[in-house]
Amino acid sequence: MAFESLTDKLQNVFKNLRGKGRLTEEDVKTALKEVKMALLEADVNFRVVKQFVKSVEARAIGADVMNGLNPGQMVIKIVNEEMTALMGSETTEIAMQPGKSTTVIMMCGLQGAGKTTTAAKLAGKFKLKGKKPLLVACDIYRPAAIEQLEINAKKQNVDAFSMGTKNKPLDIAKAGMEHAQKNGNNVVIIDTAGRLHIDEEMMQELQEIKENITVHQTLLVVDAMTGQDAVNVAKEFDEKVGVDGVILSKMDGDTRGGAALSIKAVTGKPILYVGMGEKLSDLEQFYPDRMAGRILG
Ligand code: GDP
């Protein structure tokens, strides 16, 4: 993750502001116009940018300058706070079932987004927290996905359940639930099948699993490098299947930051984790304030 271009552009805007002892309304408006351009070039959703600039402007014009800050620093502080709010303000944890109850998590996303890898990364996190996760391989369209899940489960030293490619995803998920119960797994992570594009069949498969199995958390994996496409995918999955949280994969390769800055504002769903590489340890919790800090440089 290196949003160099966005960070550079924002820093330039702020450099001009910092130098000024007093800021006129015109100064603020000019600066925010540049902020707007920088965000649009970073592939942040257009409506999100408009709303963001409006919020910053409303607070910055006529704001009382805090002790110890000059007017320019005050604007930067407001941009930082609004950017943090845009990404959800607080870190959101995956909601777990209380006590000894089993938490069932369904992973979804387009093919290649990083679902199977992320499922194994998450299983590792749960294991570290003392849980006993089970990875259930329901991606019957991609035989390699089943093998990949099993190999990754071994690497993470967690349990995996698969039934090959001949059964329906729902039946595999049901059998996986039974297996978890017998085996004492208190977190079940169902890896579902993606498609290259959003299609009805995929959505129906996911709906069917949710209608027949108590899924506590539906987590969507989207590829950060696809920018606004990732945001649109998130919106559509949420509308059709219902999503509780988003995991933004491949943030290590994202140079723009548009998806990270737009997803929460567009879908209302928090980013829970970000994928930072191909290794199974490369999954980081998402902190909106730290992310805003990184972007602003
Ligand atoms: P799926 O089709 O959604 O299950 O996607 P996979 O889990 O098979 O991942 C597709 C490719 O993306 C694989 O080569 C992964 O190693 C890679 N990948 C997944 N997450 C990340 C990440 O956070 N960073 C990078 N650089 N690669 C990732």
TrEMBL record:
Enzyme class, broadest EC rank: hydrolase
Predominant location: cytoplasm
GO molecular function: 7S RNA binding; GTP binding; GTPase activity
Binding site for GTP: 109-116, 191-195, 249-252
Keyword terms of this UniProt record: Cytoplasm, GTP-binding, Hydrolase, Nucleotide-binding, Ribonucleoprotein, RNA-binding, Signal recognition particle
Reaction equation(s) it catalyzes: GTP + H2O = GDP + phosphate + H(+)
GO cellular component terms attached to this protein's record: signal recognition particle
Entry's Gene Ontology BP terms: SRP-dependent cotranslational protein targeting to membrane
All copies of domain SRP54-type proteins GTP-binding, residue ranges: 270-283
Subcellular location(s) of the protein: Cytoplasm
Subunit and interaction comment: Part of the signal recognition particle protein translocation system, which is composed of SRP and FtsY.
Entry similarity comment: Belongs to the GTP-binding SRP family. SRP54 subfamily.
Designated name of the protein: Signal recognition particle protein
Species annotation: Eisenbergiella massiliensis
Lineage of origin: Bacteria, Bacillati, Bacillota, Clostridia, Lachnospirales
